[in-house]
Design brief:
- By secondary structure, the chain is α/β, with parallel strands linked by helices.
- The protein has helices spanning about 60-75, 85-95, 110-120; strands spanning about 5-15, 30-40, 75-80, 100, 130-135, 140-145.
- The protein has a six-stranded mixed sheet with strand order 4-3-1-2-5-6, with helices on both faces.
- β5 (about 130-135) and β6 (about 140-145) form a beta hairpin.
- About 20% of the residues are buried.
């Protein structure tokens, strides 16, 4: 049986700031992120199974990514909790803003690593995360591949 890759794309809006950075991105700003999630597996061969012929139902993949990533990060502002941005984060939270404090500098590179760990934990055991592509702007993106992280 052949392994097949299935990809689903997602969009969300997130703000962030890069503490200590020497360019404009040290300021709070936002992006319209596009996330492509690719999983790999073999299509179900049991003709009595409701998902016959599918590697994974696109709807099931959507539920995982929506719950773990999109619902958490959409219209949130993300700060590294180990920086002085914590004070700004607390002020924003006190005013009702959706703020995420993470263990890392919230670059696309680190976000895609975080996302890979969250998604892998939720996938059925017979499905593997193949790759992620997190597009920050029209011309800038970070990619994570399972094969690069063995």
């Amino acid at each position: 049986m052949s392994n097949i890759r299935i990809t689903k794309q997602f969009s969300f809006e997130t703000g962030h700031a890069l503490y200590g950075y020497d360019g404009k991105c040290r300021n709070v700003h936002g992006h319209s992120y596009k996330l492509s999630v690719t999983v790999i597996g073999q299509p179900i061969t049991d003709s009595d199974h409701v998902k016959f012929g599918m590697v994974i139902d696109f709807g099931d993949l959507k539920k995982i990514v929506k719950s773990e990533i999109v619902d958490q990060f959409d219209h949130a502002t993300v700060f590294n909790k180990n920086t002085p941005h914590v004070e700004l984060a607390e002020e924003l939270k006190s005013r009702g803003h959706h703020v995420l404090l993470v263990e890392y500098q919230p670059t696309s590179e680190n976000m895609v690593i975080d996302f890979s760990e969250k998604i892998k934990k939720q996938l059925p055991s017979h499905i593997k995360l193949h790759s992620l592509k997190l597009q920050e702007t029209e011309s800038s993106f970070a990619e994570w591949y399972a094969s690069d992280n063995i």
